[in-house]
Design brief:
Helices cover 73% and strands 0% of the residues. With 301 residues, the chain is mainly alpha-helical. This is EamA domain-containing membrane protein RarD.
Amino acid sequence: MIELKNDKIAIPVVLMAGIIWSFGPLVVRYMNDPNLVPWQYIFARGLTIFLVINLYLFFEEGKNFYKNYFRIGISGIIGGTGLGVAMITFIYSITNTSAAITLLCLAAMPFFTALLGFLFLKERISINVWVAIIIATVGIVIIALGNTQKSSLLGLVFGMISSIGFSVFSVTLRWRKETPKFTTVAFAGFFCVAVSVIIILSNDMVFLSTSYNSALFSFHGTLVCMGLILYSIGSKAIPAAELTLLSLMEVIGGIFWVWVPFLGINEIPSTNTIIGGFFLFMSIIYYSLTIKTNRRFIALN
């Protein structure tokens, strides 16, 4: 794998990863009624992630790349399952509420990761982190108070579940650092495919949506993989605390793309979302500036 040791080059590479990921919500908004074909979306996106990651591993490690699956272990299975659940609940979140709320839920991942690390890995949580978690909680409560409609509140709940799923993935990487990380991501794609196949077959549904939708499903999966590869290349040269700040590019960019009028969506966040988002951003910035060993939700370094 290409390794960048110069942070002046690595930072733009990681920023580019965040920008690529940030187009995901916009792609979903361009789909035709994605709320009616969530399992077809999950199937196509999961299959794309599984194929692209394995193709990347083949070119990176050669024909023996499949041996990584024998080293994935229980941590990789749990982490891949958590990541798969996060991918599944993402579509249910963003199709039931605004993209801003879904992305802000995902922005809370560092705090869920800290709590899960405290509960299962016995990692100590400092006072500064508790302060950041409290500030983030205030922001989430403010956002929740502004989502009184049943569907919007459901979207918020799914967004929180998605955030926790990503955090489970991150914590399993801390649990066993030797777990092959890209293989775990590929397993998450396979998990999505397996679950969606069961649901589709049991409900006598079709596997494919329209050709237009199917292309966007796969395109979204490709964006995820491209961002992961760039992130893994650049993150090795950047302190982990700075990575959390850089990861805000994904959230800010995602909210911006669905709002900017000339892209055709013009989704304006509510007042509560803006205020709650401000608290979340402040908590992340405070968290990044006060902790020395912060890890992003996908810590491929």
